[in-house]
Amino acid sequence: MKTETLVQPFASVGDKLFDAAASAGQFAVFLSRLLGELFPGLRYQRLIFEQARFIGIQSLPVVFLTSLFVGGVAALQTAYQMSGTMPLIWVGTVVSKSVFIELGPVLTALVVGARVSSSFAAEIGTMRVTEQIDAMETLAVRPIRYLAVPRLVAALVMLPVITIIANTIAILGGMAVAVLRVGISLHLFNRGMRLLFDSQDVYGGLIKSFVFGVIIAVQGCFYGFQASGGAEGVGIATTKAVVASCVMILVMDYFLAEVVFRLIFPA
Amino acid sequence: MIEIRDLHKGFGSQRVLRGVNLDIHDGETIVVLGRSGTGKSVLLKLIIALLRPDRGSIVVDGLDVNTLNYDDLGQLRKRIGMLFQMAALFDSMTVAENVGLGLRESRSLSEEQIAAVVAEKLGLVGLSGTEDKKPSELSGGMRKRVGLARAVAMNPDYILYDEPTTGLDPITARQINILIRELQAKLQVTSIVVTHDLHSAYQVGDRLCLLHEGRIYFTGTPEDMQASEDLVVRQFARGEAEGPMTNGILEPVRRGAAGVRGR
Asked: Residue A113: CB partners within 8 Å, gap ≥ 6?
């Protein structure tokens, strides 16, 4: 066997590691520039409002639909699992706890993240490959300040707002299913909700959604700025942005659970 | 004045520029000619520091563009306007917002003053009244003219043109060439035009230079180029398919054609 053939798998792994390290370095540089431009970028208020409208108001229909069904399925599954073993007053408790702590923030972030990070990556990526970002530089306009900061600020403000709305709709969905399908009275569901209610669950969930907002905006913008090579490059950037956002949200959810519910709000 | 010394730039294993030396004098219009892929646009992007060279220097009015920090580079860029090959208009903005973006960003003018400058510059390129249109509503020639209005909006000392007539019909291309000459006369700027369009080069250039094999192979007036006996310059000036610039490039095609005929 030739030496070249033996070395090939190691070279391939080496290339992948090198690419990963280069990508991590580029991400670190992007992040540091973004943080450096954060305060000067706050002056683009019109752009921040435009992005807030896109992230918040235009996401409402899809958030409404998913939250309604998430709350509904939470109530249905809880009642199914408990039937015959536990009193159904716990349905309201489980639905509210799971919505406020996990389902509301995480599923909202995944739904909004897929929509928003793909849009950011596609828009900025198209600007990159059609030289619009170069044109911005020649006009002494800083692209990260002008394009990324308004998106980041809008996302980190709007994600908690949408999460509050999503939580409310999910609870209403759960309540409707519990009353109409499971046969629990509204009074019993409400009592169950209040039984172990802790406002820290709500605050913890909102802290998570704030971080998820940052992840969505940063990933979308980063991959947009990295786009190269025309339409194919924009497509690749968009896919990478969505995958990275969703994976990062789920990974960070674990670490946030450790930090938020063990250190900041310990039981 | 722009002084380019021993400029090298490569992408991966491909060495595009291999020691470019060029002086661009104040007030002149210099045309950089060369075949596609010879690094003409790369040269422009190096001048305005959108790319960094591997080696060499570019000095604009005594400032080495590669040693400037981001703020100083921003100040220098305000004195250099650039027209991109596909105009690179911001498609989420109106024509007025495109032309006025640099002015608005510099925060030295009121909104009324910006609107007046935008109207003036659009008038200069013959597009008065198009302020509220979106780039998608404009033809290719109009987009280039808006790009030109945007490039001159901050009254630059230098204008860089990247293939200003590419993709345009002959009449619109000629109009753009006339516009470049008119702007040159009105604004007294130094212009660097990158093109492979010889008609355009002869029409707008005070001086032409030919980029070949990563270096400036020839510089001279349009008349010098037309009269040159050098085989490389002559091949380019006459647009001949065969010659030293395309050494053996047609051989595989010919062999293929002969093979097909022989079957």
From this structure: A212, A215, A216, A242, A245, A246, A249
DSSP state of B46: H
Cα A154 to its chain centre, rounded Å, is 13
Q: Is A135 close to B90, i.e. CB distance below 8 A?
A: yes
Measured CA to CA, the distance from residue A59 to residue A113 in angstroms comes to: 10
Q: Say what the pTM is.
A: 0.88
Alpha helices (H) along B48-156? 70-77, 95-106, 111-124, 140-152
By Cβ distance, the residue of B45, B90, B102 closest to A132 is: B90
Cross-chain residue pair A139–B154, CB shorter than 8 Å: yes
Alpha-carbon gap, residue B145 to B127, rounded angstroms: 8
* Mutation for A interface: B101, B143, B148, B154, most A CBs within 10 A: B101
Q: CA-to-CA distance for A150 and A107, rounded, in angstroms?
A: 24
Tokens of A160: 């908690």
- Look up tokens 């400058």; give the residue: B117
Minimal C-alpha gap between A135 and chain B (Å): 6
The interface predicted TM-score of the complex, written ipTM, equals 0.89
> Which of A132, A140, A146 has the CB atom closest to B88's CB atom?
A132
B159 φ, ψ to 5°? -125, 130
Per-residue pLDDT reduced to its tens digit, A28-62 = 999 999 999 999 999 999 999 999 999 999 999 99
Contact A138 B75 (CB under 8 A): no
**Tell me: the pLDDT tens digits for A92-103?**
999 999 999 999
Taken in order B173, B177, B182, B183, is the CA torsion positive or negative? Answer: positive
SS3 content of chain A, % helix, strand, coil (to 5): 90, 0, 10
Closest by CA position to B29, among listed B170, B200, B166: B200
Enumerate long-range contacts of A35-43, CB under 8 Å, 24 or more apart: A37/A142, A37/A144, A37/A145, A37/A148, A37/A149, A38/A149, A38/A152, A38/A153, A40/A142, A40/A145, A40/A149, A41/A144, A41/A145, A41/A146, A41/A148, A41/A149, A41/A150, A41/A153, A42/A149, A42/A153
| Tokens read off for B92 | 């989420």
Q: In the 8-state DSSP scheme, what is residue A260?
A: I
**B contact residues 52-81, partner A, Cβ 8 Å cutoff:** 70, 74-75, 77-78, 80-81
CA-derived radius of gyration, chain A: 22
By C-alpha distance, the chain B residue nearest A145 is: B105
Residue of A95, A264, A246 lying closest to A170 (CA atoms) = A95
Cβ-defined contact of B90 to A139 (cutoff 8 Å): no
